[in-house]
Amino acid sequence: MGQAMCICSRSAITIDNKRYYFVQKLDEGGFSYVDLVEGAHDGRFYALKRILCHDREARKEAQNEVEMHRLFNHPNVLGLTGHTFTERAGKTEAWLLLPYISKGTLWSVLEKLRDKGSNMPEKRILHIFRGICEGLKAIHDKGYAHRDLKPTNVLLEEDDKPVLMDLGSMNRARIEVRGSREAMTLQDWAAQRCTISYRAPELFNVESHCIIDERTDIWSLGCVLYSMMILEGPFDLIFQKGDSVALAVQNPVTIPQPCSYSQALQNLLSSIMVPNPQERPDINWVLDQVQNLQGSEGGTVDTNRI
Predict the structure, then answer these.
(1) What is the mean pLDDT of residues 32-38?
(2) Between 215-230 and 283-295, two packed helices, what is the crossing angle to 10 degrees?
(3) Domain map of the chain by residue range?
(4) Strand spans (E) along 197-257
(5) How far is 222 from 269, CA to CA, in rounded Å?
(6) What highest taxon heads this organism's lineage (predicted)?
(7) Which end of the chain has fewer CB atoms surrounding its CB within 10 Å, N or C?
(8) What is the CATH number of domain 12-99?
(9) Angle at 147 between CA 249 and CA 62, to 5 degrees
(10) Cα 166 to Cα 69, 142, 214, 269, distances in angstroms
(11) What are φ and ψ of residue 87, in 5° steps?
(12) Tens digits of per-residue pLDDT, 78-104?
């Protein structure tokens, strides 16, 4: 006879009139915590993201994250099950109830491969990468950009279906910069919200009069592809050594040789990671190339894009 678990003493929260019991802590960031909780009504596990809102601006940002989740109903973008704002010890917290994906992040999978001295087969890379592209296309099609795409922000379900998460840095895709003050404001924002080793070149030194668009995500997408191929980001070691990432991203990425992957996949990576955003492709072109590579083993990448 199995041992019954008493949930009477477990701490509980209520969201949308439903009770959820705390199971364990999953992750912790600068101003947020993620806990594993169990629904009293359905016995299912969920991830509860608690965002500490120290001021009105922080609450506004948390509300923006809620609204970004609500915009999407797509298999490759993490949905929002429920949310609430609560007062605890005189401070406001935003509680975001999210689906729990037990396999973890793409980065955790890459770390395990690296620890085993293995690599990710090209077929698997293309499968995961296509799903990431599909999710990113859904975001771009609605006129938004993710702004913090990286392996730790991609969850993997059991069938290797990728799900984009952490929409807290998402904003409108097209940002018109008019003057040095706006440029510095955007640059400071990017320094805080866009992970340095996956940040697009144009966000390090924002020009006084320019347009920043969703192609910042394409650069980050290239960094994610690189990490799946090499099992580390293209600028991770540069950052860890304390060298200038801002300087390194001004040059085309170098793929370590010999490389076990097809020349077509290497060409795709080189076509994505172009320092000049005006020469960088959009998500539709990238997705077309991935589909071509999946459709024919050893396929080719169209280097004569418009």
Answers:
(1) 93
(2) 30
(3) 12-99, 106-295
(4) 209-212
(5) 6
(6) Eukaryota
(7) N
(8) 3.30.200.20
(9) 145
(10) 9, 17, 17, 24
(11) -105, 125
(12) 999 999 999 877 789 999 999 999 899
| Beta-strand pair 91-99/82-88 | antiparallel
Task: Give the per-residue pLDDT at 125.
Answer: 98
Among the listed residues 111, 137, 126, 131, the one whose alpha carbon sits nearest the alpha carbon of residue 218:
137
| C-alpha span between 262 and 259 (Å, rounded) | 8
148 as an active site residue: the answer is yes
Separation between Cα atoms, residue 205 and residue 201, nearest integer Å: 7
The neighbour count for residue 186, using CB atoms within 10 Å, is: 17
pLDDT in tens, 155-201: 999 899 999 999 999 999 999 999 999 999 999 999 999 999 999 99
Query: Which tokens sit at 193?
Result: 């919200």
CATH class of 106-295: mainly alpha
Taking the C-alpha atoms of residue 76 and residue 287, their distance in angstroms, rounded to an integer, is 14
Structure confidence at residue 300 (pLDDT): 57
> What is the rounded distance in angstroms from the CA atom of residue 100 to the CA atom of residue 20?
13
User: Cβ(115)–Cβ(127) under 8 Å?
Assistant: no
**Higher-pLDDT residue of 40, 252:** 40
Catalytic residue chosen out of the listed positions 27, 35, 55, 148: 148
